[in-house]
């Protein structure tokens, strides 16, 4: 049994053998590539500017790198990659190839040969340590070109572009710096990583090239005809051939058509060696070869259109590289074998994991595949790219790479979905809890990397719209990474949708079906809308403001920069008038000159201008500001344009309702809110005022006290009873005398009493002031919790792609800091909630006829003993369907409808969980907010109207406030209610008491005129009111109070009277007493409980 | 080293003038050609042989972006795009860079920016120097 080999064993053995052959081919190719590297380097030693050798060197390194990657040799690949980067600097960025560079590359070459042997001996990758020294040297060399190094890592922009970055910055003046930071004029580091377009993959380039080549070939043929004529024509013909070589040679090199380049170079050599008619044949041969090559390129360009033959997605042509289509026949058999081997190998184990993280992967695959294709003759259509078996010369290779690319792309799409999920989780943390959006930058970078890889996948599969979607997403994520765009859940969702739809499209393509691109087109539209929405949102916002202010053409908004807006702002401050001028400046130099001089004059501010194409003329529409009158301006123009033929002037009026003076007079815009500074400033300001008032009050009270002291001392000394007793004793019947004496004493006594009364008044006033001041010391303006809301609203709105205007009322209402502390967090969360969940997106709002900008208002008010915050919006309100669904899940209802009043009850009930609409953000637990308020004896009221918005009322009782209270007694306890809440005092008749329930006596109502008012008893027992049918106690007294718009009749034993009381917070076990918001000292040692009417009966 | 050859391509005559005035006195540069659109510039390329082209984007007949494609195949000149329609990150700016523009500099005050020298003069010069490897002494 042990000896018996199974089919699998044989398959394994076969696989091993095949793998061995692949290794052997890798070694052979590798040595060949390294030989080419050596040859190129040796040539470059004597001529470092030899562009052809640099290209050769680069390609050899590129091939070696790609092959190493295919074999999973990461270290060797890395070494080759860095060497390639170094050469790329020379090839693409204009860096001079130095002797040091050549030496280093030779060193790398030598080491690579050793490592290749090493790899072949062990069949595995080498250690990083074996290349570390070379890597370090390369780093040093790249460091000599720091920006190039950055590019080599990123492969973004042409080196020379990035090189000028510091120049622009250094050059800017201080004010410019600020603006440049906002909106730099020079584009050096675009937000999105864009590589230089590869002309060979760009249909437009191919078209231009072919058009140009056509003209050049015409020139060549004419030149050859002249050469054939001989004589004087010969010289001109040779000149034209040289010009042809120069022109087409450059273009073919730029296009990367190496085979064409080779033919042109042969032609160049032939021209140099020209010795007469004998070479005409050679010229004609080369001309024919060129024509054939160009024909192949042209065919390829035509075939490049649709992958599936259906014509869709033809915008992104693939790198056809037709110059490789005429590969030396001698290599055919070996490559053929390689293709076969690879096909078998890979079909046995299609890669499912993401290959090494290098965004060049697809590029390398293209290279390897193209190196393996070999049409049977130059005239064969290079249909290798299509996967149809009939047209494909190397079906095996196509299937292999199709399979590889599909697996790779699918793996990337799955990975993208996972990273997006993680990003969403992080974002939600921000939205619900934190105040700082601190997503993991690595995640954003990963998304960008994946998108780039997927972009290549789309290009490979010729999904034009897919590629554009991915590029747009990449752009958006680059903005996210740069901080210009908030990471919205909309963006995350679109990314997920993109992944799903691309997956479906890839599946279709790979099963030979035509992918449905309509879903991709839709998605592209959405993403581009977002891109448009977010692009330079700050400038757009300000621009919008300006356009709102001035009645000017909206087309200016496309060219408005921060600098222009600054100019507008300055012009407004200077009180200038705005004009638009449509000028044809190109027709007459005089007109241009006069306009130029006028616009440079001191009174004129040229804001910006746009190009207007009118027939064949180019006109410019200027937006400018000036103090000059319209007449004066026209007079200036009339100097050169009396008919008004070239320059026309229009005044820009202010939009309706805009009062420029108000704007000019308006205080400067506050800088961004800084909570810590603001708090300090606020506290400082209050303290200073309060202390001044405090001292003044103390001064008044001291004076009053001395008055009191003086009068009481006099009264004490003048002891009235003693005086009366003495006078009675001394009267001896002379009552007239007694009366006179007594009258004098009583007058003095009355005078003092009057003084006392005044003193009491003064003391009362001083005490009032003293209270106010004392409370002011504790009070802080509501702006402390309201100001940060603007930022929150804008952040969240931007994040979710909404437009929201926040209106704040009552910012200057002073509230005790304890109340502010209680309100701050719930207010912040609820405002976030209405922006995130109730306000719709601009598109949705437009659809239902609402203004695109949603409105949220936050109003803070203070009653005698309560602070209230009302948060309202004009959005969608709470989602009834989602609420009902949740309630049904919880078993709270089985109904298909929401019973009246239940929606609010449910969302505030413990256990309901997150409340939210179908927007991207996570919901909010309203019950927990209510509970948090209740801890402080506060409450949350909610009301919501579908499509009209939601209204939150937060109510907290105020501590440490003085109120005019009505003091009463129930049993042994004194209670206080705000006097403003007392509506009537009723001593009811039996008939006025109505029992509302049939089975008990606890629910009673007071019939007062036409109203029925619920009666509430304080304390545990209201039995003394009498049960149903019994006579009511004749002593019963009802205090009718108004509570939050409703009335309430309170049973009291005794009314003590009206009194000013200071409400103080309840401490210790008293803190749990229901229906009471605080306590108050009543004098004579009594303490009153301050009733919380809002809480009572709720 | 001889003066570097600069070509100006802009459809606004005044802008061509402004740029010429700005760079005309530069000891390292010589203005060798002017064109009002991409087509005209393309026709003049062989004759003018510029080392650097200052290119507007929004032009009639052939715009700057299409010109960039042609120029990349036809000559070795560095191209600096001077435009009012391609702010940072805009698709046009990105496209210009990807088509081979060496730098994109925004015009400060719209298509016709008389204040170009005041606000961008130094920046433009420095960019040109850098691209043409001119020692800024």
Q: What does this protein structure show overall?
A:
The complex is a heterodimer of chains A (1098) and B (137). Chain A has 1098 residues and is α+β, with helices and mostly antiparallel strands. In chain A, α18 (464-482) packs antiparallel against α19, α19 (489-510) runs antiparallel to α20 (518-534) and α29 (783-800) packs parallel to α30. Chain A starts with 6 loop residues before the first helix and ends in a 7-residue tail after the last strand. Chain B has 137 residues and is of the alpha/beta class. In chain B, 42% of the residues lie in helices and 20% in strands. Chain B contains five helices and five strands. Chain B has helices spanning 13-23, 38-48, 64-74, 91-98, 116-132, and strands spanning 4-9, 29-35, 52-55, 78-83, 103-106. A five-stranded parallel beta sheet of chain B has the order 2-1-3-4-5, with helices on both faces.
Main beta sheet of chain A: strand number and arrangement? 6 strands, mixed
Q: How do the strands of the widest beta sheet of chain B line up side by side?
A: 2-1-3-4-5
Helix content of chain B: 40-55%
CA gyration radius of chain B, whole angstroms = 13 Å
What topology, given as strand order, has the largest sheet of chain A?
Answer: 15-19-20-18-17-16
Proportion in β-strands of chain B: 15-25%
Distance between the termini of chain A: 86 Å
Q: What topology does this entry show?
A:
The complex is a heterodimer of chains A (1098) and B (137).
Chain A: H1 7-46, H2 51-70, H3 74-93, H4 99-122, H5 132-143, H6 146-154, H7 159-163, H8 165-171, H9 174-182, E1 186-187, H10 203-229, H11 232-255, H12 258-272, H13 280-303, H14 332-348, H15 361-372, H16 395-432, H17 441-460, H18 464-482, H19 489-510, H20 518-534, H21 537-549, H22 562-573, E2 577-583, H23 589-599, E3 604-614, E4 617-626, H24 630-638, E5 647-652, H25 660-665, H26 675-717, H27 720-731, H28 735-778, E6 779-781, H29 783-800, E7 804-809, E8 814-816, H30 817-838, H31 842-847, E9 854-862, E10 866-873, H32 880-889, H33 902-908, H34 926-935, E11 939-945, E12 949-957, E13 961-970, E14 973-978, E15 982-986, E16 993-995, E17 1004-1008, E18 1011-1017, E19 1037-1043, E20 1046-1052, E21 1054-1063, E22 1076-1083, E23 1086-1091
Parallel strand pairs in A: 7-9, 14-23, 18-20
Antiparallel strand pairs in A: 2-4, 2-5, 3-4, 6-8, 9-10, 10-12, 11-12, 13-14, 13-21, 15-19, 16-17, 17-18, 19-20, 22-23
Helix pairs in contact in A: 1-2, 1-4, 1-14, 2-3, 2-15, 3-4, 3-5, 4-5, 10-11, 10-13, 11-12, 12-13, 14-16, 15-16, 15-17, 16-17, 16-19, 17-18, 18-19, 18-20, 19-20, 26-28, 27-28, 29-30, 30-34
Chain B: E1 4-9, H1 13-23, E2 29-35, H2 38-48, E3 52-55, H3 64-74, E4 78-83, H4 91-98, E5 103-106, H5 116-132
Parallel strand pairs in B: 1-2, 1-3, 3-4, 4-5
């Amino acid at each position: 049994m042990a000896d018996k080999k199974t089919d699998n064993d044989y398959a394994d053995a076969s696989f091993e053998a095949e793998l061995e052959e692949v290794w052997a081919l890798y070694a052979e190719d590798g040595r060949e590539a390294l030989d080419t590297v050596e040859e190129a380097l040796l040539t470059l030693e004597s001529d470092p500017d030899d562009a052809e050798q640099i290209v050769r060197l680069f390609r050899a390194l590129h091939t070696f790198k790609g092959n190493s990657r295919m074999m999973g040799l990461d270290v060797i690949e890395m070494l080759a990659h860095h060497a390639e980067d170094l050469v790329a600097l020379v090839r693409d960025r204009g860096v001079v190839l130095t002797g040091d560079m050549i030496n280093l590359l030779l060193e790398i070459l030598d080491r690579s040969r050793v490592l290749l042997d090493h790899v072949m001996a062990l069949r595995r990758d080498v250690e990083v340590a074996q290349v570390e020294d070379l890597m370090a040297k390369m780093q040093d060399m790249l460091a000599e070109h720091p920006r190039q190094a950055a590019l080599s890592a990123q492969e973004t922009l042409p080196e020379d572009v990035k090189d000028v970055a510091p120049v622009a910055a250094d050059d800017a003046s201080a004010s410019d710096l600020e603006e440049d930071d906002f909106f730099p004029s020079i584009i050096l580091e675009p937000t999105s990583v864009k590589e230089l377009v590869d002309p060979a993959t760009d249909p437009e380039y191919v078209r231009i090239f072919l058009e140009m080549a056509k003209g050049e070939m015409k020139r060549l043929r004419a030149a050859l005809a002249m050469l054939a004529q001989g004589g004087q024509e010969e010289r001109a013909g040779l000149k034209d051939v040289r010009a042809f070589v120069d022109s087409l040679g450059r273009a073919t090199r730029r296009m990367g058509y190496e085979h064409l380049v080779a033919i042109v170079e042969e032609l160049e050599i032939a021209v140099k060696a020209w010795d007469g008619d004998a070479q005409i044949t050679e010229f004609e041969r080369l001309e024919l070869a060129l024509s054939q090559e160009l024909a192949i390129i042209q065919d390829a360009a035509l075939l490049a259109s649709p992958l599936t033959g259906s014509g869709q997605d033809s915008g992104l042509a693939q790198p056809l590289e037709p110059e490789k289509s005429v590969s030396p026949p001698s290599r055919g058999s070996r490559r053929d074998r390689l293709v076969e081997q690879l096909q078998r190998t890979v079909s046995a184990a299609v890669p499912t994991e993401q290959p090494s993280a290098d965004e060049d992967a697809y590029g390398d695959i293209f290279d390897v595949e193209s190196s393996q294709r070999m049409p049977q003759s130059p005239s064969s259509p290079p249909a290798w790219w299509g996967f149809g078996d009939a047209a494909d010369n190397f079906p095996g290779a196509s299937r292999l790479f199709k399979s590889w690319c599909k697996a790779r792309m699918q793996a990337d799409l799955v990975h993208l979905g996972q990273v997006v999920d993680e990003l969403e989780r992080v974002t939600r943390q921000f939205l619900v809890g934190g105040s700082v959006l601190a997503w993991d930058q690595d995640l954003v970078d990963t998304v960008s990397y994946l998108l780039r890889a997927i972009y290549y996948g789309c290009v490979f599969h010729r999904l034009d719209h897919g590629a554009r979607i991915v590029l747009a997403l990449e752009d958006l994520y680059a903005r996210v990474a740069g901080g210009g765009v908030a990471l919205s859940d909309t963006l995350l969702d679109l990314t997920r949708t993109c992944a799903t739809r691309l997956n479906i499209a890839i599946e279709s393509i790979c099963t030979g079906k035509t992918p449905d691109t309509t879903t991709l087109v839709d998605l592209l539209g959405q993403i581009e809308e977002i891109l448009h929405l977010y692009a330079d949102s700050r400038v757009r916002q300000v621009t919008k403001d300006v356009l709102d202010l001035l009645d000017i053409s909206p087309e200016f908004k496309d060219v408005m920069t921060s600098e222009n807006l600054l100019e507008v702002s300055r012009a407004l401050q200077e009180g200038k008038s705005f004009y638009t001028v449509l000028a044809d400046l190109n027709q007459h130099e005089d007109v241009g000159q006069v306009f130029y001089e006028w616009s440079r004059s001191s009174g004129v501010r040229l804001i910006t201008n746009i190009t207007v194409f009118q027939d064949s003329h180019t006109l410019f529409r200027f937006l400018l500001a000036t103090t000059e009158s319209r007449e004066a301006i026209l007079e200036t123009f009339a100097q050169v344009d009396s008919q008004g033929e070239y320059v026309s002037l229009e005044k820009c009026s202010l939009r309706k309702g805009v009062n420029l003076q108000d704007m000019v007079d308006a205080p400067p815009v506050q800088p961004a809110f800084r909570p810590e500074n603001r708090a300090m400033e606020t506290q400082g300001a209050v303290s200073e005022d309060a202390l001044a008032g405090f001292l003044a009050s103390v001064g008044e009270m001291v004076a009053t006290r001395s008055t009191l002291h003086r009068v009481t001392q006099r009264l004490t000394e003048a002891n009235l009873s003693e005086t009366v007793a003495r006078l009675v004793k001394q009267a001896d019947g002379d009552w007239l005398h007694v009366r006179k004496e007594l009258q004098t004493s009583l007058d003095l006594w009355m005078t003092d009493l009057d003084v006392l009364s005044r003193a009491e008044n003064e003391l009362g006033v001083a005490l009032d002031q003293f209270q106010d001041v004392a409370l002011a010391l504790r009070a802080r303006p509501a702006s402390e919790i309201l100001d940060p809301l603007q930022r929150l609203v804008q952040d969240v709105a931007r994040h979710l792609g909404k437009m929201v205007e926040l209106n704040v009322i009552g910012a200057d209402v002073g509230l005790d800091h304890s109340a502010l502390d209680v309100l701050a967090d719930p207010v912040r969360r609820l405002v976030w909630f209405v922006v995130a969940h109730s306000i719709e997106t601009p598109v949705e709002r437009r659809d239902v006829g609402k203004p695109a900008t949603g409105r949220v208002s936050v109003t803070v008010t203070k009653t005698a003993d309560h602070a209230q915050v009302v948060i309202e919006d004009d959005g969608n309100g709470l989602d009834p369907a989602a609420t009902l669904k949740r309630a049904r899940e919880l078993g709270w209802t089985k109904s298909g409808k929401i019973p009246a009043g239940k929606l609010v009850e449910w969302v505030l009930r413990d256990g309901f969980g997150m409340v939210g609409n179908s927007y991207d953000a996570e919901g909010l637990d309203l019950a927990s907010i209510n509970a948090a308020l209740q801890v402080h004896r506060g409450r949350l009221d909610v009301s919501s109207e579908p499509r009209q918005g939601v209204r939150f009322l937060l109510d907290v009782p105020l501590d440490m406030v003085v109120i005019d209270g009505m003091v009463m007694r129930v049993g042994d306890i004194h209670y206080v209610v705000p006097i403003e809440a007392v509506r009537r005092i009723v001593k009811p008749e039996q008939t006025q008491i109505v029992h509302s329930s049939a089975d008990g006596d606890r629910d009673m109502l007071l019939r007062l005129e036409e109203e029925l008012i619920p009666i509430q008893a304080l304390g545990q027992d209201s039995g003394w009111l009498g049960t149903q049918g019994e006579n009511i106690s004749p002593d019963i007294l009802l205090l009718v109070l108004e509570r939050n718009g409703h009335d309430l009749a309170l049973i009291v034993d005794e009314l003590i009277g009206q009194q000013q009381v200071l409400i103080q917070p309840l401490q210790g076990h008293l803190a749990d007493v229901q229906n009471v918001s605080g306590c108050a000292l009543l004098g004579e040692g009594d303490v009153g409980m301050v009733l919380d009417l809002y809480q009572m009966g709720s | 080293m001889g003066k570097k050859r600069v070509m100006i391509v802009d459809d606004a005559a005044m802008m061509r003038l402004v740029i010429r005035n700005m760079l005309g006195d530069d000891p390292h540069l010589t203005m060798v050609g002017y064109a009002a659109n991409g087509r005209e510039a393309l026709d003049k390329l062989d004759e003018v042989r510029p080392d650097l082209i200052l290119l507007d984007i929004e032009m009639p007949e052939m715009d700057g972006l299409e010109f960039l494609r042609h120029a990349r195949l036809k000559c070795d000149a560095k191209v600096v795009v001077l435009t009012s329609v391609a702010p940072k990150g805009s698709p046009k700016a990105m496209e210009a860079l990807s088509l081979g523009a060496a730098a994109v500099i925004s015009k400060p005050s719209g298509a016709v920016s008389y204040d170009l020298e005041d606000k961008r003069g130094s920046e433009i010069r420095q960019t040109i120097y850098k691209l043409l490897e001119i020692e800024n002494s």
